[in-house]
Design goal:
Blueprint: H1 2-8, H2 30-40, H3 44-61, H4 74-83, E1 90-96, E2 102-109, E3 112-122, E4 125-129, E5 133-134, E6 152-153, H5 156-170, E7 184-187, H6 197-207, E8 220-224, H7 228-238, E9 241-245, H8 251-257, H9 260-263, H10 266-274, E10 285-291, H11 299-309, E11 314-320, H12 334-346, H13 374-389
Parallel strand pairs: 4-7, 7-8, 8-9, 9-10, 10-11
Antiparallel strand pairs: 1-2, 2-3, 3-4, 5-6
């Protein structure tokens, strides 16, 4: 402890406090950047202009050095460099699948690690699957992430940083360049986005800003396991596309594999879908349906699904189950999946079978899990309390 060190020091010597770490402005919104500039002593009448400049350089050009901000005077750039950084968090691991999928394990803070995945050739370009939590509060039986207990929600900045890191890795700066590969964002990574609605909404204000990352809101999809009370408000707040992790079309089966259904049964969930803001044939809801052998993959289950979706502009993504160590489930046979898809298609609902991507690096749907276990978070909190009481 510092007290002991001082007691053992030679007379006349004082402990030199370490300099406080400079905060990074990367990942922050306009209001947060403006607040930092105000604390720095920037003239009030110039804060808005300086904020706009810095925001544009960070999110349109992806700069990593203050000297790259050429429309800001050198003395001010030096002052900014003395007080702030443009650092990104550490990439603990970067894996590239044989099919081109890229998975990033990102350390946001000590003991706080999260995974995100870039999937090429989605919607003619590519999509980034981002996480909204470290771990998950839900315990869906077929999902690997669900075996990792929740550590904490991610902040808006930590969500945005996943996009920044992917853009860095793909070399897709400036934002305005043509033929970009990362054009879509899907909140289908670790966690339940609607248990972190404020952070998701705030992050989208940055991600969708036309003077920054510039990804249109119609290219954002928020997926939920069915947190009914927040579906409508999230739609109003974000104008994002909605995806429902459904996986069963009757309450008994869905409650077995997705315990959240006991709290929000299908009748309530489907009504929330019918009431979703902006719902139309051009803004359909995507229903995700993982194919589990002998569990939810029979023609009977397909007919139940058709009946459930009646009257809702919808499409169905059929997802072959992606195995993970310790799972009790198997993927349905391919013929079974195709038969299921044909039944749903004939009823008028598009039901593409999602090609598994990134299985060889555990980057496929339902396979994400980081090493940031709740035990480690508890240890960090205990250590923090011990330090405070020392």
């Amino acid at each position: 402890m510092s007290t002991t060190l001082l007691q053992n020091a030679e007379p006349g010597l004082k402990e030199t406090p370490s300099a406080p770490a400079r905060p990074s402005l990367v990942g922050l919104g306009r209001k947060e950047i403006a607040a930092h500039l105000e604390e720095l002593g920037i003239e009030p009448k110039k804060i808005r202009m300086r904020t706009k400049q810095i925001f544009h350089w960070i999110y349109n050009y992806g700069v990593t050095e203050w000297d790259q901000m050429t429309n800001i005077a050198k003395p001010l750039r030096a002052k900014l460099a003395d007080h702030f950084t443009l650092d990104r968090p550490e990439i603990v691991e970067r894996l590239i699948s044989k099919d081109g999928t890229r998975k990033y394990l990102i350390r946001m803070a000590p003991g706080i690690e999260v995974e995100s995945v870039f999937i090429p050739d989605v919607s003619k370009t590519g999509a980034l699957c981002v996480s909204s939590q470290v771990g998950c509060t839900l315990t869906c039986k077929f999902c690997h992430t669900g075996t990792q207990r929740l550590v904490r929600n991610l902040t808006p900045r930590e969500i945005v940083l996943q996009v920044i890191i992917a853009r860095d890795d793909l070399g897709e700066w400036p934002t305005t360049q043509e033929n970009r590969r990362l054009t879509n964002i899907v909140f289908m990574g670790m966690g339940e986005p609607l248990y972190n609605t404020d952070a998701v909404g705030d992050s989208l204000d940055i991600i969708c800003d036309p003077e920054g990352l510039g990804i249109g809101r119609r290219r954002i999809t928020v997926s939920t396991s069915g947190v009914v009370p927040d579906i409508g408000p999230m739609g109003e707040r974000t104008s994002a596309m909605l995806a429902i992790s459904l996986h069963a079309a009757n309450d008994d089966l869905r409650s077995q594999i997705m315990p959240i259904n006991k709290k929000y049964p299908l009748a309530e969930l489907m009504q929330a879908c019918r009431d979703y803001p902006g719902l139309s044939n051009s803004k359909r809801i995507t229903f995700e349906y993982v194919m589990l052998k002998g569990v939810n993959d029979s023609p009977k289950h397909a007919k139940e699904l058709i009946k459930l979706l009646r009257g809702i502009p919808a499409k169905v993504n059929l997802i072959p189950f992606n195995p993970w160590p310790g799972s009790d489930y198997e993927c349905s046979d391919w013929d079974t999946i195709e038969t299921f898809a044909d039944i749903v298609n004939r009823a008028g609902y598009a039901s593409p079978i999602r090609t598994p991507r990134g299985r060889d690096i555990f980057a496929a749907c339902g396979q994400l899990k980081s090493e940031s276990e709740k035990k480690r978070a508890s240890q960090i909190r205990a250590e923090s309390k011990a330090a405070e009481s020392a």
